[in-house]
Amino acid sequence: MREIIKGWQEFWAEFFRIKHRHGIKGIKEWDKKLVTHIINALALEKGSKIIDLACGGGDQALEFARRGMSVIGIDIAKVLVDYGNEVAKGENLPVKLIQGDMRETKFTNEFDACVILSGSFGFFEDDDNIKVLQVIEKALKRGGKFYIHGPNPLKKMREEWKGWDEVDGGYVLMRSNYDPKTGKIVDGFFYFTNSGELVNFMPRPEDKGFSVETKVYTLNEMIRLIETANLKFTSAYGSTELPLEEYRITSNSMVVVGEKP
User: Fold this and answer.
1) I need a surface site. Which of 11, 37, 93, 231 has the fewest CB within 10 A?
2) How many C-beta atoms lie closer than 10 Å to residue 73's C-beta?
3) Which residues, 6+ apart, have CB-to-CB distance to 1 below 8 Å?
4) Domains and CATH numbers, the chain
């Protein structure tokens, strides 16, 4: 079997966030439910202006726009930004995706809400994760709200996961486990093509801002980071389903909600 090494920008971003993601059964309905949950949790209205950090291909950003909101999305992968902008153009939606590093995004007092979804908070060390929260604080209007969605860290710390899917002329093997020494979830993935090639991941210089290691924080730790960035924690939920469900240690998700005082 011939092994090929590819980075996030050149292969894996499109493979995972478009080809693989869009092949997941029920994913469009999940996106709709997630956006509905966010709208209820943040009390958003038509006309709200949202910034979506680490937006991927913009699936949720596009759904917000279909409901009468305008969205700016930030992602490091050009292929994902191009994809989302093309869909937005085709549907005439008020969505603009921008290629960039979410730590270096510069907006001031502009947005009613900020979202970071699907475990995309924690790509960096503590100081840089605080920088992301400071970006949120600066970008939000006074009274603007934020929504950070990820897995329940207390469950992720106790479980190791692996699985595979058939996708795009081959099979992808994925695994995820918690490293107690670093406090990070470490993800691995391999793609075996039907023609006998193994595509492996190795970060490239242009992949700055993406990581296969994600720092997970308990709710208490998240609240402290939020307060360090001069933001205010208001609520934590344990799922993305309605009615709003208070976060518990047995919850599947941890959704952290707050605002700019």
Assistant:
1) 11
2) 29
3) 192, 196, 197, 198
4) 26-151+217-259 (3.40.50.150)
Task: In whole angstroms, give the CA distance from residue 67 to residue 39.
Answer: 10
User: What's this model's pTM, rounded to 2 decimal places?
Assistant: 0.96
**Token pair listed for 67:** 């409901």
Give the distance, in angstroms, between the CA of residue 184 and the centroid of all CA atoms in the same chain.
16
Please classify residue 111 by burial: count the beta carbons closer than 10 Å to its beta carbon, then call 0-12 exposed, 13-18 middle and 19+ buried.
buried
Q: What is the pLDDT of residues 68-124, one digit of tens each?
A: 999 999 999 999 999 999 999 999 999 999 999 999 999 999 999 999 999 999 999
Name the residue with tokens 């996961």: 161
CB–CB of 62/91 below 8 Å?
A: yes
* CB neighbour list of residue 11: distance below 8 Å, 6 or more residues apart: 199
**CA 142, 88, 201 angle in degrees (round to 5)?**
90
